[in-house]
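Here is an idea for our session: we take a single protein and study its fold together. Start from the sequence, derive the backbone structure tokens from it, and show both lines together. Once you have written the record down, we can walk along the chain together:
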Amino acid sequence: MRLLHTSDWHLGQSLHSFDRHYEHQCFLDWLLDTIVAEQADALLIAGDVFDNANPSAASQRQLYHFLRQARAAAPGLDIMLVAGNHDSPGRIDAPGPLLEELGTRVVGNVERTADGAIDVARLVHPLTNRDGAVAAWCLAVPFLRPSDVPRVEGGGDPYLAGIAELYQRALAHAEALRQPGQAIVAMGHCHMVDGQMSADSERRIVIGGTEMLPAGIFGPSIAYAALGHLHLAQQIGRHAHIRYCGSPLPLSFSEVHYQHQVLRVDLDGGALRETVAVPVPRAVHLLRVPTRPAPLDQVLDELEALDFPLAPAYAQPYLEVRVLLDAPEPGLRARIEAALEGKHVRLAKIETSSARRGGSLDEAAVSLDQLAQLQPADVFSRLYRQKFGSDAPDEQMAAFAELLLAEPAR
């Protein structure tokens, strides 16, 4: 049996206010072609299909159009989709009865029976091969909130213990259903211990890091664990069968060097045969100029040297400009925009930093009692000194005082 593993589409995401519908559509069109070319039996979508819990009508239409096209292009394809932490569980579940007609099963919520017990059977689904025979059983577990998991008595973190117990129950149910030669595949949207996060675009699931799951929850009877949430494609430790496929496109400038991909997963009976990365072509490039923050004059020279061919606005590269400042530069944006005139790029972000000549974070830090005695101008002065290593100029202090005295807009 052959699976394709993907996750973290984040349909509807904007990059610094630029709409990314075009890029997502390029990915979905490519994915349709890949499903056919790879002769996939099933597609696993491991959460965060939308960027937020209230996606636009255009984003929802984009998803459902893709599902209909996938059914037409590969009539025997099974599609399994679980909700991520960005998704609304109810919104994912709502079209389920209709989507089943397209060979798509969705799991947004962990449902309970009339007596309050977790309905484990709803989390376990068969996956069929191209002959129509059941070749695997899928533990379709969505992102789990503390209220979703069973209560486990004893020591340790109750949330982590509840997640492990839920997977164990789902696994036991799958083992009771499977026949010889059938594999068990797990899905999850979670943060595993040792998983590498993106610096800018991944939302912490639970404050404090207690949500990080040990690899042991996916035991040896699970042939493959298809995970979502982390945008960097990676396997967990030495466990070749536990993998994040990563996001299909960079969701922030910190992900500009990620190798975006879907994973082709081949099963041989009940075992994993191999996992192969299938690179996703990048429809629109993200540029960081310069590669490291540099003084403004050097930055302007590099910007003026950019040369990109004319392209529609939606296909032009996104640009992050990285400037090293010794002092505030009031005309910074105007100078950068002038250097980019006619360059056929989209200025998405200006990142400024400073090589501080003195001071430290500890010097700027004060106790709550001390803070209560400081005037706003004192706080401004301390922060200026912390960032730039010198006292704020008189004109800066005067401008700040004018802001404090300004009447609020009505």
In short: The two ends are 64 Å apart (CA to CA). The longest helix spans residues 158-177.
